[in-house]
Every structure is written in C-alpha cells, then in structure tokens.
Amino acid sequence: MYEGAIQDLIDELGRLPGVGPKSAQRIAFHILSADPADVGRLATALRKVKELVRFCTTCYNVAESEQCRICRDPRRTEESICVVEEPKDVVAIERTGEFRGKYHVLGGAINPLEGIGPDNLRIRELLARLGTGAVKELILATDPNTEGEATATYLALMVKPMGIDVSRLASGLPVGGDLEYADEITLGRAFEGRRAV
Amino acid sequence: MQDVGVPPGYRRQLYRDDAVVLRVQKLGESDRIITLLTRHHGRLRAVARGVRRTTSKFGARLEPFGHVDLQLAGSPEGVGSALHSVSQVEAIDLYGGTFLADYPRYTAASAIAETAERLTPIEREPSLRIFQLTLGALRALAAREHDSSLVLDAYLLRGMSYAGWAPALAECAVCGTPGRHGAFSVPAGGSVCPDCRPPGAAHPAPATLGLMSALTSGDWSVADAAEGPVRRECSGLVAAHLQWHLEKALRSLPLVDRRTGP
Ligand SMILES: [Zn+2]
Ligand SMILES: [Zn+2]
C-alpha cells in the first residue's frame, strides 16, 4: 500500500477491465514519472470522452452528436441492418469494407447466468426500427460464442415473423472467439458468406 | 503453459477429470475463467488461456454446458486458493451447440448450470450425485424428448431432494400425515394437511402436485401428458420453493423462456 494520491490512482486503474494489481501499479508509476504535458493530454482525453461522446439515438453506436457518423451517411442503405454486441464490433466490421448498410448496437449479449435477458439489451429499440418497413435484411453479427449465438437465435425468433430476411455470419469464425479478434480477411469472408437463418 | 497463480511452496500437479462447463467468464484480454463441475473433484474454477483468440482450438470446447475431458494443473486437494488452469481439453459431448438453435432450451440449460453452482456451495468438495444429475439433465435437454421446462423442473426438484429440502408431496410437511393434501405452503415446506395449513397457503390443482411427484420420481409418461396450465403452476411452485431455500435469488430462473420449444 502506498500513501494518498498514488494509491488512489492504483485503485482506480485496478478497476479497469484487464488491469490486474501489478499492471495498475506499473501504469501509476509510469504516469508519475511521465512528462506533465503527456499526463495533461491523458487527463483531458479522459474528461472529454465522458463529456462529448454519447450513444447514437438511432443505433446506439458511439457518437459525438445526436446520430453517429454511419447513421448520418446518406450513401449507406437503410435496407440492411447489421446487429452487433458492442461499438468495437462496428469498427471491426467497418474495417472489412464489406458492409454498406447501418448498424444496431445491442450493448451486450443475452446471458441468463449474469442476469442479462432480452429486456436488458437494446432489443426493443431494434424491433421498433424494424417495424417501420424500410429494413429488408437483418444481419446477426453477434460474437461466435454461446451468448452471441443465443442472442442471434432469440433475435431470429422475434424478427422472422416480421417478414425480414435474417442472416448470420458464416462459420470460419471459430466458436468461443470474440469478433474483435477476427482478422479482416476472416471477418470479411464470414460476412460475404452469411447464411439465412 | 505458463505457470501462474501457484503460491510459493506448493507443488503444481497435473490431474485428469471429466466435467460439465457451468459458466465461462472473460478474464483480461484473451483468457477465460471456466467454472467446472467435475466428476471427482467437485466444483472448481480454472483459467483457460488464450481461448478468446479466434485462432484458439480450445475455445469451442470450453463453452457453457459442454461435457469435457480435462487435464488440469493445480493442487487437486485445493491447497491454497490459487486458480487451477486448463492444460488440455477434449470434447465428450458439446451440448451447448444443440441448445443454441433453441432459445427455450438455452435458457433452461442456463438455469440448470446456475442451480448446479448453488447446490455445490463449497469449491472442490466432491459431489458425484449433483454431477450425475446435472449431466443427466443436460443430456435430456439435448435429446429433445421432453419439453425443456419439464426437464428443468425435474432437475430442480431432484436437486432440492439431494440438498435435503425437497417439497413434501406425499405427506403433510408439518405433521407428516401421509396422503396428498390439497394445500401447498412454501414456508411450511410443501403440501400441508387441513389442520396444519398456514394462512396464505396456495391451493394448486391436484394435477399440479401430481406433476411435481412425477417429475421427482422420473415418471415421464405422466409428466409429458400434463396440460399447459398445470405445467405453469408446477413451475411457479418449484421456483418459489427453490428461491425460498437459496440465500440469493437465481438470476437465470426469471429469464427462462417457458414457451414450448420445437
Ligand atoms: Zn448510429
Ligand atoms: Zn399436518
């Protein structure tokens, strides 16, 4: 245990995902010895991200205005929506350059063991978007693990009666993996070879 | 394999066992913590390294609800509280895959897994009967011979009997007078005779108590024939009885999709 401010910083860093106590200590001492200007920029970035970044009111991707850049882009089709778990998955799919439609970010996946059911995700909001009749295709790009597959199954169950084509990313993404770790070529291929469910 | 999490002075051993994967949680960048119900070593948590990378061949075998054969590293006697780690894994039956195409079955499997954790409160305490019961329930769920809601309720009722808090069904929970009594009280411990009936006791349909007995004893011809309202009333009483005896509410039980699967 250290005194005061340095221990506070270690404690705060240690609460971040993937940061253990040793890493928290290493980062804290790095910050302590770093150039004040660098630390100032980090502090500003931290403050700004909470001040400026919000969630797009249409797709729940991160945005700096009412709507995100993708929802505002008139060249992207309204007919196709790709459903992902997190904003980082939007980035992964955008990198493949395969998709010209819009997204819907659920904010996670159904996980009954953690108490996360359909009502805890942005599923009602998705169904409302689909209810307008403009959308013809729904692509389920949740993670290729148990929670992601279960979420895709649930969405297919809810959406298919609405007469919308529903497809799932093709295999090639090994079960148990995270979408964000798939390389562009694999993910692009999975996207191109998506199958109707 | 990186040797981590072993307190100094303890020897790390390799041991084998088969297990059901109950829960999978993310750890750090690409690892997972797997909660396992093993046949011989009880419930334990082990770390699986690198499984979230899409290049890992391990990952698919360590998804929830699978029956797997494992090689674990750590002290089987549980010396120290260090996490064990998974060093090898082979699939025996990956039930998870079969549940994923069927949402009600997936939610029932989740409730079975969470209940299995609660029925084995002490880590590394061997509990062969709960292991067999859990594996059997997942197998039955995958076989699709019975409605998923019935398989779940049968598991919960039998699990409660192993734990020693099965609802009384063939006698009065208070005075022990044999017979099937019409009233049911969760705080009293099950069905109650007219003399012992506490205020607020439920009056389920006689067929509901019949269904509970059939599920407890494994009389599937009676269980499969039960009507929808009877099944729903049975599920309600089983859930209420289970929650009464558990310190903390089950998270997955209210999320079980009770619509009849295909
Ligand atoms: Zn948007
Ligand atoms: Zn009595």
Account of the protein in words:
The complex is a heterodimer of chains A (197) and B (262). With 197 residues, chain A is of the alpha/beta class. In chain A, the strands form 2 sheets. Chain A has a 5-stranded mixed sheet with strand order 4-3-5-6-7. In chain A, strands 1-2 form a two-stranded antiparallel sheet. Chain A is 44% helix and 12% strand. Chain A folds into 2 domains: 4-52, Helicase, Ruva Protein, domain 3 (Orthogonal Bundle); 68-196, Dna Topoisomerase Vi A Subunit, Chain: A, domain 2. Chain A contains 8 helices and 7 strands, in the order αααββαβαβαβαβαβ. In chain B, α3 (128-143) runs antiparallel to α4. Chain B is α+β, with helices and mostly antiparallel strands. Chain B folds into 2 domains: 13-94, Nucleic acid-binding proteins (OB fold (Dihydrolipoamide Acetyltransferase, E2P)), CATH 2.40.50.140; 145-255, no CATH class. In chain B, the strands form 2 sheets. Chain B has a 5-stranded mixed barrel with strand order 1-2-3-5-4. Chain B is built from 7 helices and 7 strands. The interface between A and B is medium-sized, with 27 and 38 residues. The structure holds zinc ion (2 copies). One zinc ion binds at residues 56, 58-59, 61, 67-68, 70-71 of chain A.
CATH class of the largest domain in chain A: Alpha Beta
- Low-confidence stretches of chain A at least 5 residues in length (pLDDT < 50)? none
* Shape annotation of chain A: elongated
Percent helix range of chain A: 40-55%
- Residue share in β-strands of chain B: 15-25%
Summed up:
The complex is a heterodimer of chains A (197) and B (262). By secondary structure, chain A is of the alpha/beta class. Chain A has helices spanning 4-14, 21-33, 36-52, 69-72, 87-96, 123-130, 146-159, 184-192, and strands spanning 54-55, 62-63, 80-84, 102-105, 137-140, 165-168, 195-196.
